[in-house]
């Protein structure tokens, strides 16, 4: 078992093991992607997952989104199981209703923004709150306008995605994710497709989100300065295991593992 220690941020009064992975394994054919992995994340904590490409970081996020099922082990969010291992060693997925309830608390922003191309910016943000959360159109629009202001796009509410830059589209995607009022925000390489200047705009918005809310964040990124500014803890992945986990100051300034040192030299 690879146990990474969990520090709950001072500001969070929440549960210390709000998200919990226990003995999670996943393989694709002979490729062991996650190897008996255990860790927990406290409510309100902001954790960055770093490590070489293919080390299993995105797989973690996809499992939380129930886009991917582990082969064995247990995943819990709050008091609810997403997957759990039964006494006979078989993996049981939670019921559909149960998964919907947990899924309603988690949203993910991807590298590709995946906005609805035929809808204006405002409708991109209100669509799910109206159809999934059952909000009234007025209520959803009011909140969407606040969020679009927060991401610096008040003047683009009536634009179509194709009229926006990549950075602007990604900021709409962030507003859209937050409109679902999630407890947990998953960010998967959200700036990888962007030029540095546009990436910086997106990271500034995410810094504000992190500072102004108690949202629990799990973030896969190669933007190390952002990771340093925003995270409470950084977890270094290598070959499906967490080889080192520490507050950003510690891991970036004095990494203990040689593998972490080499990785950081390659990206910094
Ligand atoms: P990271 O996010 O650290 O780059 P991933 O979690 O995306 O790594 O991938 C881990 C490994 O799992 C990689 O070797 C990748 O090729 C493999 N993998 C991911 N998804 C699939 C899939 N659907 N089918 C087969 N292999 C996959």
From TrEMBL:
One GO molecular-function entry: ABC-type amino acid transporter activity
Keyword line: Amino-acid transport, ATP-binding, Cell membrane, Membrane, Nucleotide-binding, Transport
A Pfam family recorded for this sequence: ABC_tran
InterPro entries: AAA+_ATPase (IPR003593), ABC_ATPase_HisP-typ (IPR030679), ABC_transporter-like_ATP-bd (IPR003439), ABC_transporter-like_CS (IPR017871), Ectoine_EhuA (IPR014343), MetN_ABC_transporter-like (IPR050086), P-loop_NTPase (IPR027417)
Residue ranges occupied by any ABC transporter domain in the UniProt entry: 19-264
Matches recorded under Gene3D superfamilies: P-loop containing nucleotide triphosphate hydrolases
Record's bilayer topology term: Peripheral membrane protein
Subcellular location: Cell membrane
Domain of life: Bacteria
Cellular component per GO, a single term: plasma membrane
Main location group: membrane
Family classification: Belongs to the ABC transporter superfamily.
Protein name, as recorded: Ectoine/hydroxyectoine ABC transporter, ATP-binding protein
